[in-house]
Amino acid sequence: MYGRNWSFRITWFRILMIIFVLIAAAAALYRFVYGLGAITNLSDEWPWGLWIGFDLLCGIALAGGGFSTALVVHVLHKDKYLPIARAALLTSLLGYIIAMVSLFLDIGRWFNFWRPFFYWGFHSVLFEVFWCISIYTTIQVLEFGDIFFEKVKFPALKKILGYLMTPLLILGIILPSLHQSSLGSLYIVAIDKLYPLWWSMLIPFFFVWSAFFLGPAMVTVEGTLAARAYGRDPELPVFQSLTKMTMWMMIIYFIVKMIDLNYRGVFGMAFNGSYESNMFLIEMIVFILLPIFMYAIPSIRTKLWGVVTASLLVVVGVVFNRMNVVFTGMAKSVGGSYFPSIWEFLITIGMWSALALAYLFIVENFSILPKEEHTHSTHTNYGTGFQA
Amino acid sequence: MSKGVLVDVTRCIDCKSCMVACKVWNDLPSRKTEFSNDLDAGSLNSDTYTVVNNSISENGDEVIWRFVKRQCMHCLEPACESACFTHSFVKTKEGAVIYKPTVLDQDYCVGCRYCMIACPFDIPAFQWEKAFPYVEKCTFCYDRTQQGLQTACAQACPTGTLQFGEREELLAEAWQRINNNPKYIKHVYGEKEYGGTSWLYISDVPFAQLGFKTEVFNRPVTEKAIPSLTWQVLKWTPFIFVGWGALLTAMRAYTKRRATVHNEEELYGPVDPKE
Ligand code: SF4
Ligand code: SF4
Ligand code: SF4
Questions:
Q1: Which residues contact residue B245 at a Cβ distance below 8 angstroms, ignoring those fewer than 6 apart?
Q2: Which of A27, A120, A381, B252 stands the most exposed, by the fewest C-beta atoms within 10 Å?
Q3: pLDDT per residue over A158-193, tens digit each?
Q4: Which of A112-116, A228-232, A299-303, B45-49 has the lowest mean pLDDT?
Q5: Do B128 and A33 lie within an 8 Å CB cutoff?
Q6: Which of A300, A115, A92, A278 is closest to A179 using CA atoms?
Q7: Do the strands B3-8 and B199-202 form a parallel or antiparallel pair, or are they unpaired?
Q8: Within 6 Å (CB) of ligand 1, which residues are found?
Q9: The domain A13-369 belongs to what CATH superfamily?
Q10: Is residue B36 part of a domain?
């Protein structure tokens, strides 16, 4: 521990990311002044694009690590997962902030953003999403406050937060469970627009369930990245013991999906050779079945490369699923075409760079990652070539 | 009483008077169009609440031309209303589905465009080019019907294609025309689709051939109102909130007894990047 000094090492890679953030900030400013049409390729056919599909839906899904870890560590008290608890909380918080920022960027009349707090369209799924996300982000900030005040000493506040922690933790699991599922329910209205391989009355279940099993995979991937970046030992035993839960949850996901397709009589559509069916098959085979098998086979699961590859597949798979819902599944019925403009991409890149920078700054200044037993683990079996 | 409009496709001559009347009454700017071979009027947009498009099909040697006016259907249970989380769309008791920011000057809309995703007919249009855009669509001439006038488009229609009146009466009338004249297809489009709409269509050419949404993904369009589907899921929210919350609290309390206390400040530390 080195007291209250703040430090942030500057590397070329970080400078590059800072440049991305600055470009995105300038583009965002332009968008606020001149409107969405000026920099995006959105249209009446494609009212939602990259920012909603990727930054919002995927940002929130990737943040799923926060609530699944909170459930395991703080509700089930499985202490062996403590080493990853804070890192998961941090990523989750940053993911939600990205989602809020991209939502704010995306709404046309942004100065009205606070209206849903006062004009209740409670029959709207978006209403639930909006409330849950806002409150949950606040809760995560408070949870993080507990860590913040370890460094910035402010005993009175820390004590108050300490008392609040239990209700906050419980709320911090209920709210994300609710809105992860309602992000899926958003698409129930698209009954005759979204391709039947994805549209289902069960879509809320699929969304919340996948966000949940995504959690451990995400923790594994980012834990490995952080370990590489800082030349530390990855928490391999923790990653491994997480795989069992993920595997079973994915098996259940797959079974429910099959039952659902059969029940609605659209199972055959998965094999009709259309673009949608192919994307669906890729989603199921490469991103669901393959990781299940990798997790099931001990000789793969116990290796670092094995567990990381499988987890990466899970993470990419959930993103792929969200993309299929937002883009692939809607394409046929809405017509027209959409490909994000360069500015939409640049803003997205800028936001994720900001996330990476914030993560680096926070883990270097606050107690997020577990203390290393022997600080000089000079030998890490995967090299230290990558310097974040 | 709930108003409606009956559109008899067999009577339309493609004069586009309704389009002009709509632009004039609602004070909408014109947009530059391009000539194309099919004389189509293009698609709806934020300056165009209604278009009349051509539909050409063949029946043996005979070429069949029909002209179909398109605008918001004013659903009886509108998906757009249920989707909006600021309640900026409302179904009025007169039948019109109106957008409060522009019709009533109640500016709550945040411009999230979920209404556009929700509408099964892809009607709402967004003012993409504006810095602070509104959503735009046919207002059912709410300002006129409030005063006992008929809609501008119905008033302008020279052939009686558009007939304004009580929805119930129009529906009866539609079936009467269908039953008295074998040329009509035995279907009133809008009677049941998505829970029914205030605008009703009858035609002598199958609706699918005219470009109406009758089938999607090889099944007929749903006759359930979309808001009812969402509500089936949404209504569980409070129960999940309470039930899941109780379960979590109980589990936490139960496992806590066995858990050891950790000093978290001992467990974690900042990373030293200089290593
Ligand atoms: S047609 Fe679309 S915009 Fe019009 S009332 Fe129905 S859902 Fe709303
Ligand atoms: S764009 Fe406006 S009217 Fe449409 S759903 Fe969003 S807040 Fe409601
Ligand atoms: S009812 Fe009024 S707003 Fe709607 S299409 Fe007719 S003239 Fe236009």
A1: A170, A171, A174
A2: A381
A3: 777 777 777 888 888 888 888 888 888 888 888 888
A4: A112-116
A5: no
A6: A92
A7: parallel
A8: B 72-75, 78-80, 97, 119, 121, 123-124, 137
A9: Formate dehydrogenase/DMSO reductase domain (1.20.1630.10)
A10: yes
